[in-house]
Amino acid sequence: MISSPDSFARDAASLDKLSTFESVNFYFERAAELLQMPEDERVILQRPFRELQVEIPIKMDDGRWRVFNGYRVQHDNSRGPCKGGLRYHPSVDNDEVRALASLMTWKTALVDLPFGGAKGGIACEPHRLSSGEKQRLTRAFVRAIGDIIGPNQDIPAPDVNTDAQTMAWIMDEYSARHGFSPAVVTGKPPALGGSLGREEATGRGVSLITRAVCDVLGLPLRGAPVVIQGFGNVGSNAARTLSEMGARIVGVSDASGALCDPRGLDVTALLAYQAQHRSLEGFAPAGAKQISNEELLALDCDILIPAALGGVLTAGSARDVHARLVVEAANAPTTAGGQQVLAERGIPVVPDILANAGGVIVSYFEWTQNLTEFRWKLPQVQRELEESLARSWDEVLAASKKHATDWRTASYTVAIERVAVATRARFMS
Ligand code: NAD
Question: Is the pLDDT of residue 286 over 60?
């Protein structure tokens, strides 16, 4: 007998105690139960394929040596080379990287890319490092993990506090040993083989999915009040593309604080300030109110888009959400307890593995352009991104109807099935 997902219902506060990796596997188990997947297959699919932790000693600008911890976790490679971002943040640890790597396996499978999942990171405070220190740290990390990355092994990309410049350093360091290898990373500057449209791809994808979901819910996007937490690559591009689609951005935030204006913030002015200062700190447009990040999550709006770090919508903060829809632009922004509270309150959640998949989709386009030494024009990138996301959303909706389940569990059923088919064909049959 197939268990109903309700058989997984637990006290939301106890679900919040799960680590991020345990939360991902909690969702995995709900979906695996619907698929009636045998226990031995579940173990193979859940466990990471390879984990590497490295010591990265670098000489700081003041002449002293400091040692950083670096991580790369390759979760699964049954459907293709591992793929996943590289994060620079003080909270980076093995559990977080492992969880994010597994999310990449399910994300690449959900949107049907020929990749597996990986993630990496360095525990550091990037804003306290000079550009020279960041470059030395990145290059030393590449030397430490150089044997396990490569165009056919594992292909890093930007994530929190890393960008096209970081990818350029990785490509250069890797190429010094292997010859010119643009396909070893994605999210590079276009001058080095980066795809047109990659930088905005995650945010644009968030907006395309939001529009498609609003169509299904009968929620008009034009004029809809939207709140976005995080104004980095993903949050700022989501704000720009959603406002181009007619939505009203009524609240935004970054690590320095939050701003709101129910009449709608001037997104062009926000983007210009962010481009100049790399932060929203000190931006005080007339009529806007300064609030805290906690208050931002509780603002009245139609659509709430967490686009910063993980674990912000907990069982506690989810009770204060006043949105009709949550779209997860960040990875793992909702804890399992938060997800349960939102479900109880009837607030649908578009899961991260669908909502923010635009980035890895265009990373795939970039990788194929590098391998074929051929450049795509921007309209082709944007058209194929939209088609790919529309197809994936249709598949999630169909799985949600078939299994009578929420969109997150439905997304996992689609993804897990694909990885299971490849794994069985490669070594289980
Ligand atoms: P980024 O470094 O460009 O931006 C992060 C933003 O979050 C910044 O504005 C920062 O100030 C803000 N922030 C940090 N701590 C905060 C806090 N406590 N409260 C409010 N804001 C805070 O990173 P990004 O690339 O935009 O990534 C954001 C999220 O999207 C991450 O979860 C990342 O894993 C996910 N993601 C990124 C990509 C990509 O292509 N870059 C792809 C998929 C998913």
Answer: yes
